[in-house]
């Protein structure tokens, strides 16, 4: 790591509202220039954490540092931080340029300076041709880009984005993901993005903090969180997964030997915190499974195909295991040449490599 201080360090931060603890001793660091996402279901405390960074909420216990300095006593308008909200909050009677320049004038910049900077920002978000329109004459996506331009205009070091895409329809939301990511790269500003949408988080973020019930569940790069979830909550919340209850018999050489309820033996990846004798869940992603009519050299579990569901990009096969619950196998259309699909009622083996099967700490 370089000597550049982290953009944000949250150290043992607790937030209480009366008797209710919204955040339970959260510690995390956000690097400078990073696209960082706080991801979790409604009510998990992501907005609370964002508002504490912005200075709209105080920290009950613990501390938050911005580029190495504690910010406890710094009011929101003195922090080098700006926020983009879900509902844009544009001024309806002002033009696009006036909306973008407004905050600058409030900060004491001259009218002409504010206009010039607004022009640059509108170029950045590719809205120069709409500079003289009123917000009501723009689409939802364009309005959100004006809100972004306005938030970026004062050159914050950190931009906080609170579910900024949730008011947009799906297609626009998907297009805006790339725009936001590009904007972050171009400006080099640290983005802290709040969402409950795991796909949004996976596609945009350098790193993701997964939260639930006021606790940090896991922090890591998107691929890492998807492929190596630490616990049941993360495995279940991010993407789709098969969860099987297993007993751990032995751990050796980075692999765990386990068995299912009916006794069938399986080899899984070893996971820190899980020892021999434990009864835990094993998670395996549906796209890491394949079907065969004979057992293979991989881990093979016998079952009966219940149904095949066509979901556009792939086929979802639901299979009742002889020795356990149902599993879902996903076969992408591009793999259908070399992976078999079985008709409902057929006997088949569900196969997985040991490295795809992951034990979870509950
Ligand atoms: N001012 C407040 N007084 C009391 N409780 C609050 C207050 N603000 C938030 N909470 C509670 O704290 C918890 C976390 O809220 P927060 O808004 O941070 O969740 P969130 O993860 O951002 O959810 P959402 O995605 O629904 O916005 C919730 O249970 C909420 O009801």
From TrEMBL:
Record's GO cellular component terms: ATP-binding cassette (ABC) transporter complex
Q: Which Gene3D superfamilies match?
A: 2.40.50.100, P-loop containing nucleotide triphosphate hydrolases
Q: What class of enzyme is it?
A: translocase
Q: Which reaction does it catalyse?
A: ATP + H2O + polyamine-[polyamine-binding protein]Side 1 = ADP + phosphate + polyamineSide 2 + [polyamine-binding protein]Side 1
Q: Which CDD domains match?
A: ABC_PotA_N
Ordered alphabetically, the record's keywords are: ATP-binding, Cell membrane, Hydrolase, Membrane, Nucleotide-binding, Translocase, Transport
- InterPro entries hit by this protein: AAA+_ATPase, ABC_SmlMolc_Importer, ABC_transporter-like_ATP-bd, ABC_transporter-like_CS, Mo/tungstate-bd_C_term_dom, P-loop_NTPase, PotA-like, PotA_ATP-bd
- Looking at the record, the residues that make up the ABC transporter domain are 8-238
Which Pfam families does UniProt cross-reference here?
ABC_tran (PF00005), TOBE_2 (PF08402)
User: E.C. number, please?
Assistant: 7.6.2.11
In Gene Ontology terms, what is one molecular function of this protein? ATP binding
Function of the molecule? Part of the ABC transporter complex PotABCD involved in spermidine/putrescine import. Responsible for energy coupling to the transport system.
Family in the record: Belongs to the ABC transporter superfamily. Spermidine/putrescine importer (TC 3.A.1.11.1) family.
Q: How does it assemble?
A: The complex is composed of two ATP-binding proteins (PotA), two transmembrane proteins (PotB and PotC) and a solute-binding protein (PotD).
- State the name under which the record lists this protein: Spermidine/putrescine import ATP-binding protein PotA
Gene symbol?
potA_9
């Amino acid at each position: 790591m370089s000597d550049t201080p982290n953009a944000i360090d949250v150290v043992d931060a607790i937030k209480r509202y009366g008797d209710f603890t919204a955040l339970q001793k959260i510690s995390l660091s956000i690097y400078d220039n990073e696209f960082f996402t706080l991801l979790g279901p409604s009510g998990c405390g992501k907005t609370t954490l964002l508002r504490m960074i912005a200075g709209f909420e105080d920290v009950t216990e613990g501390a938050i540092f911005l580029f190495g300095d504690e910010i406890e006593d710094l009011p929101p308008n003195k922090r080098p931080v700006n926020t983009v909200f879900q509902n844009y909050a544009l001024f309806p009677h002002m033009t696009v340029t006036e909306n973008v320049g407004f905050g600058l004038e409030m900060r004491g910049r001259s009218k002409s300076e504010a206009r010039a900077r607004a022009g640059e920002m509108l170029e950045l978000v590719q809205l120069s041709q709409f500079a003289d329109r009123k917000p009501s004459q723009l689409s939802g996506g364009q309005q959100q880009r004006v809100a972004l331009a306005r938030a970026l205009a004062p050159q914050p070091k950190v931009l906080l984005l609170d579910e900024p895409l949730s008011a947009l329809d799906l297609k626009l939301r998907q297009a805006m993901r790339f725009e936001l990511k590009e904007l972050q790269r171009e400006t080099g500003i640290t983005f802290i993005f709040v969402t409950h949408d795991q796909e949004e988080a996976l596609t945009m973020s350098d790193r993701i903090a997964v939260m639930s019930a006021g606790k940090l569940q896991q922090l890591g790069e998107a691929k890492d969180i998807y492929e190596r979830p630490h616990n049941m909550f993360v495995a279940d919340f991010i993407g789709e997964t098969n969860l099987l209850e297993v007993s751990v018999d032995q751990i050796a050489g980075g692999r765990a030997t386990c068995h299912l309820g009916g006794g069938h033996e399986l080899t899984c990846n070893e996971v820190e915190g899980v020892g021999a004798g434990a009864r835990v869940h094993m998670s395996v992603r549906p796209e890491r499974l394949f079907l065969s009519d004979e057992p293979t050299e991989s881990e093979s579990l016998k079952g009966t195909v219940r149904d095949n569901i066509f979901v556009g990009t792939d086929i979802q096969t639901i299979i009742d295991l002889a020795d356990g619950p149902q599993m879902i196998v996903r076969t992408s259309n591009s793999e259908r040449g070399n992976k078999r699909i079985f008709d409902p009622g057929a006997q088949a083996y569900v196969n997985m490599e040991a490295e795809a099967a992951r034990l979870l700490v509950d």
